[in-house]
Design a protein that fits this description.
twelve-stranded mixed sheet; 19% helix; globular; outer membrane lipoprotein receptor (LolB), chain A; alpha+beta; 243 residues
Length: 243
């Protein structure tokens, strides 16, 4: 259906004044295939290496790095272990609560959470300002949201990224440019993405590379249960925090 609609728009473009460029059907197809594979998984595990630009006013943009180990069992189990310039932290979601623990500071917090991973990701971002790694990719309507939120999506051919043949897709708007590299193989898993924020001073970038994918691994339920160390201090609930 999306290809039929895209083809109709292409036919109409010459007769419509000031029309926006149509989204590339090839790019939309690649994005849909990627989303379909993720949507069919019962569980997954991957590593995410992150680089982001932070504006240090006295010197300009400075690169900050993080590595996340992510485990998910749909629809209601998630664990993330993250190491970054802000220290070593962990998150556990068991379908009822989400817990945060700082290994460096030996403190933690546990709050009630919604019934699913996706609802919890949205709620924790809204209430506490925590951005979970590459969360947008796991929403079933990812492609539709990208189409709605950008002015144009184009297919830029095939590129070699992280040792893999990849499809290169770019989505752009006045405020940002989003580049995605998706594996050119039977699974079409995401390999890398980069976001450039054109509406921010100096156009900072957020870049992330996926690796060590495991599809439908058998993960023990106990790994998603958080038990605070006896010596750990419980944090007072805060509305904003930095991952």
């Amino acid at each position: 259906m999306k290809q039929i609609v895209a083809g109709f728009l292409l036919l109409m473009l010459p007769t419509v004044a000031n029309a926006q460029p149509a989204d590339d059907p090839a790019a939309v197809q690649v994005l849909d295939q990627m989303s379909d594979v993720i949507g069919d998984l019962g569980s997954c595990r991957f590593t995410l290496q992150i680089s982001r630009d932070v504006d240090e006013h006295d010197v300009g943009l400075v690169k900050r790095f993080a590595v996340d180990e992510v485990y998910m069992v749909g629809p209601d189990k998630m664990r993330i272990d993250t190491r970054s310039d802000n220290g070593h932290k962990g998150y556990w979601y068991d379908g009822k609560n989400i817990s945060y623990y700082s290994y460096d500071e030996n403190n933690y917090a546990t709050v009630e959470a919604p019934d699913t991973i996706l609802e919890t990701i949205e709620a924790v971002h809204r209430d506490y300002g925590v951005d979970f790694p590459a969360a947008d990719f796991f929403f079933p309507n990812f492609t539709d949201d990208l189409i709605e939120g950008t002015d144009r999506i184009v297919f830029l051919g095939k590129k070699m990224v992280a040792g893999k043949d990849c499809f290169h897709v770019m989505a752009s708007s006045k405020s940002m440019g989003i580049q995605l590299w998706i594996a050119d193989d039977a699974l079409n898993l995401r390999v890398k993405f980069c976001i450039t924020y054109h509406d921010q001073p100096k156009a900072p970038q957020y870049e992330a590379t996926f690796s060590d994918w495991q599809l439908n691994p058998v993960l023990p339920v106990a790994m998603f249960d958080f038990t605070a160390p006896r010596t750990a201090a419980r944090l007072v609930r805060k509305r904003r925090c930095e991952r």
